């Protein structure tokens, strides 16, 4: 049976009424070798490295969390004039060892891993697998929509992509909505802005009407297919869109190292208004453990945004040898 997705198109006027900002141009890749979700833009400028990273004097840190044999902490950097420069998380290399396994998380009981807002996090069943979850506020940064870090350690990976992500990895969510909104999301479920209008003989969805317009999707990204529609909306996160050219898709987990996911949450009355709500580098523990140097990658852009603030156009992974740590950041903010 042919699969169909029908999108209820918004007019430009209705998009403005819902708070969308439209770029007058799509950012062109200015550096040779750019690609979505895993091919580097090349090394970032080295001036910050010579001064130390993140830069002293213009960086503020959030609360420190316990992770493995080390810790992690979110940070925000602004320029001296107040323009956003980085939102990021600094992860001790020691934190990559001593991480809890799936059995430990499942059996953690009421003694530890019980509060995602605490320094030890919360054990949750997410994507049908166990995850250690943290919610940590970013220090305020003027003119960006980013509110808090959602960090997940997935000892057995998680479902999706035909098994593409079922290897030990971290989900590093840069959220744009309030913690309470994300905390209230329960799944897996059908997103509130989708309606199933057709099923095949075994009950799997084949036709969907959606309020999520194509112009809201970042360039080169796709949604989970209709048979997975009732599992699109994920606990404490929302819907995940992936780059269609990610090397691990479909069903090739050996190729998974570092992929940028971008995601949506339903807002407004009954959650019927989908908004781009998070940017999420997914990185395997192996990738972070072996990483050296600095690499920057493109953040693919949508045609319309749910805000009119500064939005990142790159993310980076950076070795911090002086701190024996790694930083994952969103950066190169441009005003919408």
Notable traits:
single chain, 336 residues, mainly beta, 10-stranded antiparallel sheet, 7-stranded antiparallel sheet, 5 helices, globular, disordered N terminus
Mean pLDDT: 88
Number of domains: 1
Distance between the termini: 41 Å
Q: What assembly state would you assign to the polypeptide chains in this entry?
A: single chain
Major beta sheet summary:
10 strands, antiparallel
Q: What is the percent of helical residues?
A: under 10%
Annotation, overall tally of beta strands: 22
Q: What structural class do you assign from the helix and strand content?
A: mainly beta
Describe this structure in words.
- The chain has 336 residues and is mainly β.
- It has one domain.
- Helix content is 8%, strand content 40%.
- The strands form 4 sheets. Strands 7, 8, 9, 10, 11, 14, 15, 16, 17 and 18 form a 10-stranded antiparallel sheet that branches. Strands 3, 4, 5, 6, 19, 21 and 22 form a 7-stranded antiparallel sheet that branches.
- A hairpin with a 2-residue loop joins strand 4 and strand 5.
- It starts with a strand and ends with a strand.
- 45% of the residues are buried.
- The N terminus is likely disordered.
List the helices and strands and how they pair.
Layout: E1 4-7, H1 12-17, E2 21-22, H2 47-51, E3 59-61, E4 65-67, E5 70-78, E6 84-92, H3 102-106, E7 114-115, E8 121-126, E9 129-137, E10 148-154, E11 169-175, H4 179-183, E12 194-199, E13 205-210, E14 221-222, E15 233-234, E16 238-243, E17 258-267, E18 273-284, H5 285-290, E19 294-298, E20 304-305, E21 310-320, E22 325-335
Parallel strand pairs: 1-13
Antiparallel strand pairs: 2-20, 3-5, 4-5, 5-6, 6-22, 7-8, 8-9, 9-10, 10-11, 11-18, 12-13, 14-16, 15-16, 16-17, 17-18, 19-21, 21-22
